[in-house]
Design brief:
Blueprint lengths: L5 H15 L2 H4 L5 E2 L2 E2 H27 L5 H6 L4
Antiparallel strand pairs: 1-2
């Protein structure tokens, strides 16, 4: 099993840090965004942004992987 690249690890680490360790920076009720207190908005926003970060990590991992020859891809791989 191949170790993940640094870019993939960083893409996965961003949502973790944004949700878990930034609470003390934005833990307020007064700012309202789209009718929600900012802390709820922040967490809901990261529910949407986390899959984008994971897609970026996937792209980092698949960019390094060698592609099979064109003939093998057409047949669905080696038989």
């Amino acid at each position: 099993m191949k170790k993940p690249s640094l870019g993939a690890l960083l893409c996965g680490f961003v949502p973790f840090v944004a949700v878990c360790f930034s609470v003390s920076l934005w833990d307020r009720i007064d700012p309202i965004v789209f009718g929600l207190p900012f802390n709820f908005f922040w967490l809901i926003a990261w529910l949407v942004l986390t899959p984008l970060c994971m897609w970026g990590a996937y792209r980092f991992e698949t960019a390094d992987r060698p592609q099979p020859p064109a003939g093998d891809r057409d047949r669905g791989g080696a038989t």
